[in-house]
Specification:
Blueprint: H1 3-16, H2 18-31, H3 34-55, H4 61-80, H5 82-109
Helix pairs in contact: 2-5, 3-4
């Protein structure tokens, strides 16, 4: 099997993983949540309004403060949505697995033994030669 085919097989294995499946299910739940999608849309509109107001030569500080307050309230509601919280947890779990996969690949590319190399837990060890990549 050539390297490209092996990479495709790795991609299939990643997509078959429990972490990937849970993340996809959580994404689908978020996409189907009309209240959440309305909140995300409102958040994006408020960001555009803030950007437009901030770029004016004569900014209206009261309007900016009001818009920022609304933005924070919408952000809190969006991030507190059950589907969004489940997605964030699933995404963190998937990202942790992918960080480990990428770390092992990096170690192998640096000459480590693919069968025994381990990604250090707890973040940066200070040595780039054994680094699994920044998270």
């Amino acid at each position: 099997m050539d390297l490209i085919q092996m990479t495709r097989e790795l991609g299939k294995a990643i997509q078959a993983s429990e972490e990937y499946r849970k993340m996809q299910e959580a994404q689908t739940a978020c996409d189907g949540d009309a209240v959440l999608q309305d909140g995300i849309g409102e958040f994006n509109l408020l960001r555009m309004q803030i950007s437009t107001e901030a770029q004016k030569e004569e900014k209206d500080a009261d309007k900016l403060q009001e818009l920022n307050g609304k933005l924070q309230a919408v952000y809190t509601a969006v991030m507190g949505n059950d589907h969004m919280m489940a997605y964030n947890i699933a995404k963190q779990d998937f990202d942790a697995v992918m960080q480990q996969v990428q770390g092992i690949l990096t170690l192998c590319l640096n000459g480590e033994d693919p069968d025994t190399c381990e990604v250090p837990e707890g973040g940066c060890s200070g040595s780039c030669s054994t680094c699994g990549g920044c998270g």
